[in-house]
Amino acid sequence: MAKIIGIIVVFASVLGGYVLSHGKIAALIQPFEVLIIGGAALGAFLQANPGSTFMHVFKKALGMFGHKYTRAYYLDVLRLIYEILNKSRREGMMAIEADIEDPGASPIFSKYPGILKDERMTAYICDYLRIMSSGNMAPHELEGLFDMELGSLRDELEHPSHAVNRIADGLPGFGIVAAVLGIVVTMAMLGEAAQAELGQHVGAALVGTFLGILAAYGFFGPLAASLEHDAKEELNVYEAIKASLVASASGMPPTLAVEFGRKVLFPAHRPSFSELEQAMRGN
Question: Which end of the chain has fewer beta carbons closer than 10 Å to its terminal beta carbon, N or C?
Fold first, then answer.
């Protein structure tokens, strides 16, 4: 909701100030300037990134209007880890083999559909539980493996924000390109067009610069920052899972292992100790 309000405030402030200064909205409607700037930005984006990045960024951009990482979501992740660790502690690691080999059919994973539909996170949890069940890896070796995977995961999660940020940096330049082309058209008309028509073409050229700068700092820059924040929150959940599983591998009981994970979570939506305790008792 805050993001939608932010977009509205940008539009209202810029256009409102323009109109109050006796500007005409019709003068800002320049589809060919938008074509030059938008097309050049899209072409540059496609050149700079793998083909799959465009759809990935598009889906992430649509998702910025919601907020997945809430207190309830964190509680679900910690409860899932607690349940699976508690079962393995009571019945042995072999008892969770069916759960980690087919999470979709697992009574434990099925209780948390929001996590189960995240295939990467589900695979991440199951892979490390599978490694732990082998019993051949020391806790510090397990932690080292976690760190290596989290390093590559960090690069992957942050790539969309970096890609959008580079386009945001280039948009003012594309706005200048559109403006220069508009001036070229205007200069070619000197001596042939009336003064009013020349003024319209100069105005259209300046709109190109305006659109490039507004898009960069009013929309694409904030989008890149939002994607970066979402990437950090997603990575933080993986780090919490790591902390819980490493603590369990070190011999901590499930209730204490998930407390290690809880303490890793960002404070903004981190469940309290009592909330987590009540959630575990409710299982």
Answer: N
Does residue 283 surpass a pLDDT of 70? Answer: no
Helix, strand, coil % in the chain, rounded to nearest 5: 85, 0, 15
Cβ-contact 262, 78 below 8 angstroms: yes
Write the pLDDT tens digit of every residue in 255-280. Answer: 999 999 999 999 888 898 888 888 88
Residue 238 lies in a domain: yes
Q: From CA 115, how far away is CA 102, in angstroms rounded?
A: 14
Signed CA dihedral, 156, 79, 118, 54: sign only:
negative
Render pLDDT for 217-234 as a digit per residue (tens, 0 to 9).
999 999 999 899 989 999
How far apart CA 204 and CA 208 sit, in angstroms, is: 7
Structurally, the chain folds into a number of domains equal to 1
Would you place residue 253 in the very low, low, confident or very high pLDDT band (cuts 50, 70, 90)?
very high
What residue numbers bound the domain in which 266 lies? 31-281
- For residue 16, is it within any domain? no
